């Protein structure tokens, strides 16, 4: 299903329906450990969507939640809270765990050039909203209380609506295949899911409620927080494909049961990242964190990969395709990114001819077509490689470009490579500010060239001398200049 294209083609109607704002909600991380490649993929995929919607003139309210309570081990209704467990093992407050890993998550996202969302609500900061939602669900008759906990009555809901509408499952199969687990005696049916859980004596994270001292069920937070910040109906809900069932299926059931309508107009799910064809998992020993990638510290890595190389690697596959990690694929990404950045850096130094020689405008419109085709980033990259080929031919003297061509090429890279795909040169220095830094040095050296042309030797010498004293090596070349930092 081509969700974005539908959305884009209906732009006029879409804007008329929701003039002020596009609401975008993406399920964020449960912060009890370092982010890994599987966290980078939704963050980067929906970052590109966020950037593109803004580029197209939409106002976007992008909400990406932080799960800091209620997500139990094995994504189940019974067991220890993932954060509570880490807090117990580390002898820390649960919120110390949350803050520690959230800070590290933000650092990794900054390095990956993922823009911060408009709102980043915490589940633990919205327990009141979640309790109100449970009360609404009880009133609607689709929830029941049992021994201090509250469960969603899936069978009753399915009699009036369709549980399984998103995942394509049907309730008969689910009822047949359900395992009966400890503690499920409280439930009318093993497929019912928890809305509120009474805390066992050893459970650390707990809040008072009308039913018991306890904590909200994992699926509840997204329904409560999306409603609070985006309203009862909003435009796009995203997340990883592993969340389709049960998490998003439960979100649909909760909103239909509490408000009578589906809250989400378009669902978008990114596919998974595999490692040598296998699913990532702690037990498989192939759980590579982003930090490992950036520092090359995991045994499966033959080298470190910069954040920008990692971003490129993710964008060279369509977000709905599976993506398999291998060192070879990452090394190819590193080369591909460098090839594009080098072409981008050469544009200003290209010799100019008077004639218009290349149809860059059609490359640009093909890039827009690819973005409109459900964010087809690999196709956008292939067009940018075509632009790089044109630039390299001109560098090699095989082809000439007009001033207009050069400006069009610059514009093409500025929009698609830098602004929308969010790629830049920072992989060379490992910090996201490198691009601005590099532009400032270029600007000074361009001023020096102007000074030389005007025979203003004092200014030209001063710029060269001072930059050298800051550690830059500057070389005059036939077409201008080259520079690098010598330390
Ligand atoms: Zn969610």
What's the structural blueprint in terms of helices and strands?
Layout: H1 3-9, H2 11-17, E1 22-26, H3 37-55, E2 60-64, H4 82-90, H5 94-111, H6 127-140, E3 143-146, E4 149-152, H7 154-160, H8 171-177, E5 193-198, E6 214-216, H9 220-230, E7 234-240, H10 244-259, E8 264-270, E9 273-275, E10 278-279, H11 290-295, H12 307-315, E11 323-325, H13 327-346, E12 352-353, H14 360-372, H15 377-395, E13 401-402, H16 403-420, H17 434-453, H18 457-469, E14 472-477, E15 480-485
Parallel strand pairs: 1-2, 1-7, 7-8, 9-11, 12-13
Antiparallel strand pairs: 3-4, 4-5, 5-6, 9-10, 14-15
Helix pairs in contact: 4-5, 6-9, 12-13, 13-15, 14-15, 14-16, 15-16, 17-18
The structure holds zinc ion (ZN).
Could you please describe the fold and organization of this structure?
With 487 residues, the chain is an alpha/beta fold. It has 18 helices and 15 strands. The protein has helices at 3-9, 11-17, 37-55, 82-90, 94-111, 127-140, 154-160, 171-177, 220-230, 244-259, 290-295, 307-315, 327-346, 360-372, 377-395, 403-420, 434-453, 457-469, and strands at 22-26, 60-64, 143-146, 149-152, 193-198, 214-216, 234-240, 264-270, 273-275, 278-279, 323-325, 352-353, 401-402, 472-477, 480-485. It has a 4-stranded parallel β-sheet with strand order 2-1-7-8. A 4-stranded antiparallel β-sheet has the order 3-4-5-6, with helices on one face. A 3-stranded mixed β-sheet has the order 10-9-11. Strand 14 (472-477) and strand 15 form a beta hairpin. Helix 6 (127-140) packs across helix 9 (220-230) and helix 14 (360-372) packs antiparallel against helix 15 (377-395). The longest helix is centred in the last third of the chain and has 20 residues, at 327-346. The relative contact order is 0.11. Residues 1-6 have low confidence and may be disordered.
């Amino acid at each position: 299903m081509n969700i974005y294209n539908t959305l884009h083609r209906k732009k006029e109607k879409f804007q008329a329906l929701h003039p002020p704002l596009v609401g975008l909600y993406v399920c964020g991380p449960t912060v009890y450990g370092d982010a890994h490649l599987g966290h980078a993929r939704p963050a980067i995929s929906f970052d590109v969507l966020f950037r593109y919607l803004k580029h197209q003139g939409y106002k976007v309210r992008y909400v990406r939640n932080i799960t800091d309570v209620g997500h139990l081990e094995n994504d189940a209704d019974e067991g220890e809270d993932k954060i509570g467990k880490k807090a117990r093992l580390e002898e820390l407050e649960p919120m110390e765990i949350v803050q520690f890993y959230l800070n590290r998550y933000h650092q990794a996202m900054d390095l990956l050039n993922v823009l911060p969302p408009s709102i980043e609500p915490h589940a633990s900061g919205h327990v009141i909203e979640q309790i109100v939602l449970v009360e609404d669900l009880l009133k609607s008759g689709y929830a029941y209380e049992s021994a201090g906990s509250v469960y969603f009555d899936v069978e009753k809901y399915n009699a009036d609506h369709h549980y399984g509408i998103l995942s394509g499952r049907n309730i008969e199969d689910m009822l047949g295949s359900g395992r009966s687990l400890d503690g499920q005696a409280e439930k009318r049916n093993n497929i019912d899911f928890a809305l509120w859980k009474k805390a066992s004596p050893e459970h650390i994270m707990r809040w008072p409620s009308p039913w018991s001292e306890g904590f909200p069920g994992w699926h509840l937070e997204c329904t409560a927080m999306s409603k609070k910040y985006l309203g009862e109906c909003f435009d796009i809900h995203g997340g990883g494909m592993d969340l389709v069932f049960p998490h998003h299926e439960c979100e649909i059931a909760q909103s239909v049961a509490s408000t009578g309508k589906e809250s989400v107009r378009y669902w978008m799910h990114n596919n998974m990242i595999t490692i040598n064809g296998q699913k990532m998992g702690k037990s498989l020993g192939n759980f590579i964190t982003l930090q490992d990638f950036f520092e090359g510290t995991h045994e499966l890595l033959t080298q470190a990969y910069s954040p920008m190389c990692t971003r490129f690697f993710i964008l060279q596959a369509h977000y709905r395709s599976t993506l398999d990690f291998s060192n070879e694929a990452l090394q190819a990404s590193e080369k591909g990114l460098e090839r594009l950045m080098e072409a981008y850096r050469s544009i200003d130094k290209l010799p100019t001819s008077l004639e218009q020689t290349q149809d860059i405008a059609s490359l640009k419109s093909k890039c827009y077509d690819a973005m409109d085709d459900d964010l087809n980033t690999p196709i956008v990259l292939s067009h940018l490689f075509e632009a790089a080929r044109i630039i390299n031919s001109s560098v090699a003297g095989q082809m000439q470009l007009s001033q207009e061509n050069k400006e069009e090429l610059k514009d093409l890279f500025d929009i698609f490579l830098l602004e929308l795909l969010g790629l830049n040169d920072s992989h060379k220095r490992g910090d996201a500010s490198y691009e601005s830094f590099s532009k400032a040095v270029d600007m000074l050296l361009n001023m020096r060239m102007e000074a030389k042309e005007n025979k203003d030797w004092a200014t030209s010498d001063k710029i060269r001398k001072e930059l050298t004293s800051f550690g830059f090596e500057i070389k005059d070349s036939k077409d201008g200049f080259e520079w690098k930092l010598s330390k």
